[in-house]
Amino acid sequence: METPQEIDFITMLLPLAGIAFLIALGVIFMYQQFQKNIIRQQLEREEIKSQYQKELLHTTIKVQEEERQRIANDLHDELAAALSIGRMQLTQLEHEKEFNPKRIAEVREIMETTLAATRRISHELMPLQLSQLGLEKALVTLLKKAEDAKNLKTNIAVGTNYTNLPWLLEIALYRIFSELINNTLKHAEATTIDISILRQSNQLFCRFSDDGKGLSKKLLNRGLGLQSLENRVRAFEGELKFGNSNEGGFYCKIKIPLESEENNTKTAKKSIK
Amino acid sequence: MSSIQEFIFFLPNLFLLLVGSYVIKNYPQFKAELRVISWFIFLSLIFQIPSYILGLFGNNNLPFLHFYTPLSFVCLTVFYQRVFRQFVHPSLLWWIMGFFVLFSCVNTIFWQELKSFNSYALSLESVLIIIYSLSLFTLLLDASVREEKRELLSSLVWINSGLLIYHTSGLLLFYFGDLLTHFTTVKFRISWIFHSFIYFVLFVCIIIGLWKHPKK
Asked: Residue B155's closest CA among B19, B33, B9?
């Protein structure tokens, strides 16, 4: 048997200590690299978030201005024009000495048209069904209109316990679904629309889906219309997820906390201000 | 005693075959990081089985180790490169990989020839893998990283632990390799039994890591 050689303890341990030191240096170096990159990524994320908040604010202002513009156009083109004609005819009637039932009937007709236009504008601003019959009925009416417009099949499923939602939340949901239905009618070439609303304890879950061609990549990166939806949902501290489903078509899921009705109303009011 | 030794030598090879068959079956489901670990397993199979057979017949199988060492290091570096993506400059790990392959070739040509044990390259490989491995654990201390790697977290921790255990034990074994040559053949053989055991532990950790891969 070979005799083991004498081993110098220091000679043996020093290189091992050196290796341990080298490993420690390597780990420290890598750790510094990680920290640098993690901080950089956090800053980038903050930047994107701040940019996104700015975009949301701009979108909100833009949508508000567009809505004001639309109302102004409606008032100017329909009401003002009809009232102006009515006034002209009344002026002419003032100067006529004889009673002229035909001209009076014409003025009445103009007044009726004006009244109908006023109702339409008013309903567009605040749907009558929503205030009188509630969200479900208002949505059913909306879906019926969509069915008539594009020969669509629509389904709505509403849980029995979703009632007593704050009024502002009902308006917001109505606007959101209205916007989604509008988008589907305009762009999706869909044949079916499905809506569901379900309340589970303190959460409200809403889902909208169609079987159309889905969102383009550009819109998937949050298009203008969808940003306004997100803004409405955020006003209630909710979450909005949307995208293209595996089967094709678009889906949008909304989750809104309903911890207390007061809270929701307060939050929404704050956001509207 | 001899039959137990033979069994311990054989155990990692048997287990490697099992891991290999699992990897072949599930490869398409693996994420990019785990696919590299699959390459590492295939590579280990390609080198380990012929090397074991050669060893059985008493032939020198060390030339296999000279090729296996740089190739396995390349696989593991690519694995860590994918895991560290976004957290280190990508060229850093390429440079380390290039440096190690070059060192390994120089070592084989000039210092520890084909038929001798390439302890220098193996020691350096272990040092570098230990650095990667400990770095990954420090990286995973960050909550945002854990959240980002949520799906793979369990797999990464198991595989990384296996690599750390194997290479830490291996480093000590390779470091004291020179000393081993001064021992008797029996003791030298015991150290290789220990190596077989930690090699087996490595593949146990890897198979658990792969088993915990995110399912669809």
From this structure: B33
| Other residues' Cβ atoms within 10 Å of the Cβ of residue B76 | 23
**B113 phi and psi angles, rounded to 5 deg:** -65, 175
CB pair distance less than 8 Å for B88 and A37:
yes
Does domain A128-272 bear CATH number 3.30.565.10? yes
Shortest CA distance to B212 belongs to which of B160, B165, B163, B167?
A: B160
The verdict on a CB contact (< 8 Å) between B182 and A33 is: no
**SS3 readout for A223-264:** CHHHHHHHHHHHCCCCEEEEEECCCCCEEEEEEEECCCHHHH
CA distances from A154 to A141, A147, A207, A209, B71 (A): 11, 7, 13, 10, 60
Instruction: Quick: pLDDT tens for B14-66.
Output: 888 999 999 999 899 899 899 999 999 999 999 988 888 888 787 888 888 89
Distance CA B140, CA B157 (A): 9
Are B131 and A30 an interchain contact pair (Cβ–Cβ within 8 Å)?
yes
Indicate the domain borders of chain A. 1-125, 128-272
Per residue in A86-142, pLDDT (tens digit) is 898 888 888 887 888 888 888 899 899 899 888 888 877 777 778 788 888 889 988
Q: Using an 8 Å Cβ cutoff, are A165 and A136 in contact?
A: no
CB B31 within 8 A of CB B214: yes
Chain A residues with CB under 8 Å of a chain B CB are 1-2, 4-5, 7, 12, 15-16, 19, 22-23, 26-27, 30-31, 33-34, 37-38, 41-42
Contact residues, chain A, for B86 at CB < 8 Å? 37, 41
Give A41→chain B minimum CA distance, Å.
8
Are residues A23 and B127, on separate chains, in Cβ contact within 8 Å? Answer: yes
What is the C-alpha separation between B67 and A65, in angstroms, rounded? 71
pLDDT of residue B183: 58
Q: Say if residues A261 and A164 touch (Cβ distance below 8 Å).
A: yes
Residue among A2, A34, A42 whose CB faces B87 most closely: A34
Q: Answer positive or negative: Cα dihedral of B174, B177, B180, B186.
A: positive
Q: Which residues of B touch A31 (CB under 8 A)?
A: 135, 138-139
